[in-house]
Amino acid sequence: MTETVRIVDRPVAAAILHAALRLGYTPLQARIIAGRLSDADVAKLPALLSLQLSGLTPPDLLPDIDIACDAVVSAIRQELPILLISDFDCDGASAHAVLKFAFRDYFGVPEQRIHSYIGHRLRDGYGVTETLTDRIIAEAPRPALIVTADQGSTDHERIARLRDHGFIIVVTDHHGVPASGPPPAAVACVNPVRDDSAFPDPYIAGVHVAWLLCCALRQRLIRDGDLPATAPKLGGLLDLVALGTMADCVNLARSTNNKAIIARGLAIMNSPLARPAWRALYVATNGKGPITAATLAFNFAPVINARGRLDSALGSVNLLMSDNAPAAEELAQHFVEHNTERKAVQSNMLHRSTKQAAQQVRDGAAAITIFDSEGHAGVHGICAARLAESFGRPVAYFSPKAEGEHITASLRTVHGFHVRDALAEIADRYPDDFTAWGGHAGAGGVTLKRDGLQRFAEAWASIAASALRDHRVGPEIVTDGALEVTPSFAVVEELAALEPFGRQWEHPVFRGHGRIEQVRPVGDGRHLKLVVKMDAMDYDAIWFGAVESGVCPVGVGQTVLMAYELDTNTFRDTTTLQLRIRYAN
Q: Which Pfam families match (predicted)?
């Protein structure tokens, strides 16, 4: 951390606390739940906590879903080519695999009629870009149906070009829609965040939207007699939906769908008949124990994302769809190597950018804008997220595009600042500076003309200063307060009942004072293995990434205030309780 970190306690919503107790949750569980929701959520609390698939929102509430089904069914009956276009991240790759599996294995479309296009992060950038559009027009058969996944809502000009060249376009997406509305050149824009959407859960991932389209298509094909009533349901694809949902860091607290999707997906991944990709990724990332939500977030997703960050993401789709275990294992190992390369690039970029960020903070900036002339666009998002965590401010991380006089950025935020809304405001002020932009509350991407950078940086900081004027900016770790019971395996199980944890439904973190009894570096020297005494009892502890610039932050005999998670550690078939320290001072 580059600034002093504040350890603060979550506010507890009283109405949620009492409602959770009435539903039978323990006092500790109720307190965790009440720290992640507000009293305004009390009426739908049972739905928010349910992990039952029967509670999933049906696809018929999505805007344009019937029009989209009309277009797709017509294309299938006419035996038109079907082009799948998706984002290059894990959500996009998962959505691509869902669509291809559905069309090929559930709806009977021959594989030779399905064509895959995924923009290259460096050559094309995010969305249905000009270069991707040029490539499709130059080489794709037509007339043809295009179905986008995890993109397209802000790409009207390129979609209009595709339409004019004989393509029929159905957009599926979950990113924000421009104030002017969805792209009129698309025959349908299936997006739960549209202003006219009746879909009650705006927090689902792009892969979930794609899956819902497929569910609606199955229903339509059965209704029209194109499929038998006994045609398989698409629940077997929920492992892919779970991966994309977890990877895209969508809101798990206020979604009535996301936790149930992830829970079901994990059950499929841990079953004996799981697809080869999961075992391959598990082995390649040195997995231990069952596959959990944390496995998806911290092991599988970074490896899948690394492929799209540094190379073509079509390989990610091939891995997810592989039915050959040895081939999947070879691909997964290649992806781990890509991830190792990504980590080295990330380390160098953070070393350069941290100095810029620190200077902007000293100058009083409420938001940070980085321009890294040697930056790699595939690692922007991770670096922006790390800087946002370290400095407690929104971050836009720019570097030059591979060609031309443009720069591209990934943006990440902190609580209280909405990325897409800020981008919309800046684009409205300086429309001539923008080539492309998009995003949602927590993250976004933008391509600018190079000479627009200073105007962007000033507007970005100004909007943040206004939005965060009632917030204390700076790095902080939010905890669930002191753990009022003795740490034990029983408490770990009590907390695990609230899984899956993720964005806005974070794993419980507690604060407490402890005396450092032992400390030693492990791994590459940046991590610490400790023994900490709390309430006259010694606990093993691990603190990842504790050592910065070779400086150990704690010493034997020191009493510190810690933010920590309860965890277990299995070594040589013996499982012990341990603390996972998030921060100590």
A: DHH, DHHA1, RecJ_OB
